[in-house]
Each structure stands twice: as structure tokens, then as C-alpha cells.
């Protein structure tokens, strides 16, 4: 199979990056043991957004924040019930990379958050032609586990997390 050369969205709108408003230090990746020790540290939407905003779009040399795929307004944190919800908006309604984008967000949060959190990743309502199917894939534990066992897919996720394009 030949690599795909045409882009799904050849001319995305690029937005200006925002800075960390409160100037707080961002938590970095940690082991689950370290995460458990800090299990009761509070989290808010701003901190979660800071963790995901620099994930690279699989198709373009821009971050998810720059393409307005993720925004702090679409991150909800309920620290009392240990729930985090992130909704993202693909740049086009037929984006075939939506599942990879959602998986990249999930993996990033899995790597930095304590295990106590239940994370829901969804495409924003009405933003994708296969919204129900994408949301089902992104929030099914068995499907996510199977995806993360696929070395080719995990390599693509790691490229996004390290600021590189997949295509």
C-alpha cells in the first residue's frame, strides 16, 4: 500500500498559541507509583488543556491548539468524582484522523494523570460525520487497549505527542 499523499484538509486555519495564564509549573509525565502518591492533588481544566494543547496534528506541522481542535473551554474536570472530559473538534467533518487525534489525547493524559481519573474523550457534538462511531472507539477500554498494543499505531501516537506529523 502506497503512502497517502493528499491531505484531508490541505489548508487548515491556524490560530495563535495561548500561554499558560497563571504561570504555574506544568506537571510532567510520571510513573504510576508517583501519580498514586500525588493522587489527591487537585487538577483543573487549565492544567489538562496545558497537557494536550501541544499534541501535533497527524497531518500538519501545527499543534491541536493552533488548529483549534482542542480548547480549554471543551475540557471539564470534576476533581471530586475523578472525571475528566475532553471534547475535540476535527478541522473537517470527514476527518479520517479523528480516532488518532483522540487516541493521542487519551495516551497523553494516561501518561501524566493519576490512575484515579476516568477520562472521556469525544468529538464535539455535530463536528464529525461519524461522531458516534469515533466516540465509541475512543471510550471503549478494550478497543483502546487493542489499539495501544499495535506497534504501528502506537508509533503514530508517539509521533503526534513528540511534535511530528504522521503523514
From TrEMBL:
One Pfam family in the UniProt entry: FeS_assembly_P
Alphabetical UniProt keywords: Chromosome partition
InterPro entries in alphabetical order: FSCA_dom_sf (IPR034904), MIP18 (IPR039796), MIP18-like (IPR002744)
GO biological processes: chromosome segregation; protein maturation
Record-annotated MIP18 family-like domain positions: 46-123
Record GO cellular component, one term: intracellular protein-containing complex
Protein family (similarity comment): Belongs to the MIP18 family.
Protein name stated in the entry: MIP18 family-like domain-containing protein
Taxonomic path: Eukaryota, Viridiplantae, Chlorophyta, Mamiellophyceae, Mamiellales
